[in-house]
Design goal:
about 375 residues; MFS_trans_sf; transmembrane; MFS transporter
Length: about 375
Amino acid sequence: MLGNGITLEGLGMLKAVQALTILGFGTFVGFSSGRIDRKLLFLAGIALCCAWLLLSWTAVWIPHDKVKPLLIFMVAEICNGCSLALFQNNTNSYLIDIYQAEAPAAASTEKQGTGLEKLFGQLGKLHFFFMALVSLLSGTFYALFPRLEFLYAALLAAMIGVLAWYFLPPCLEEKSQKGGDFPGATAFRQLLTLCRPHKSALALFLLAATLFQVVIQYWQPMAAVFPPLATHPGLYGLILFLMLLAQSAAGHVLQKAATHFTSSNLRLYLWLAGGLSLFGFSAGLLWHCLSGLVIGLAAFMFVLRLTMLQLSAGLHAEIPSRLRPRYDMTLNTVLRLCTAAVLPGAGALATAWGPLSLLIPGIGFLLFLGLKPEKQSSQPG
């Protein structure tokens, strides 16, 4: 986007529109996920993802003197927001229902929170591993065909949609989840009761997720400060590859932690990654070292993803299946409100003080996480 006439302020506005779209459309998904086959909702999300990518490709190719690219990107981000709302408010419920239906013996013999930690950890490991591979291939593709990356991604998404149509199982939810036998007011009262003991975990999840949104939207302007990126744009793909691979490693650690590690071992991983991230951020800020910035970003992604996966698994273990879509809807609504409020401010900060100034909130979060005392009784799952 930055190479097609979109300023940093414009980027912040586009992402704010995306967040508000997720806020509005996510409400529909949260209430409909128990009434519509969750597989169909997942496929609809893939279709909207294809529309987003094709519109973005159109914005790159249409001459800017005829149509403002900001308008096309705006429509594209609305499609992207609807797609993300479908994935975020439906996928967890779909995944957990299938896991519990296909492996009832394992689900009944394992501690609920531990079982979901293994599930979420394996999901994170595989999800981000394949994303890392695709990003590396995309970086190479972008270096060879710099204006076809959106079309390439759209074709890839379409292939995933065809595979999902044929191979994903239908949702095996209980019949009692369908229909209007669970009033909205009652659902939210029960959610409030279930979540009240875990307020600190919810607050930490929202803080980590908001920081993740800031980094994932502004890491490219941060990297663009360094001259090698101007002459070797394929490095963007390598940096994204490392950031995604770090998140895959976080999923692997959580998967193993469910059966092999203690909570102290898991906290040690967070401390080590947090220290590495602080070192990398300091090198990027003080010595203008690109390698330091890349190491810091990758380690920071590990910390954020491990924190979010662990908290998400524990919190989902406390929520019954019929309430999970509304829980995801409510949590993502609050997250998108935070994102819509923070991203324009992050864009203004990056414009005024430079993109690397966005590393400062990340440093503050790492210090807070490292100094925060561990409270086993407050951790769900």
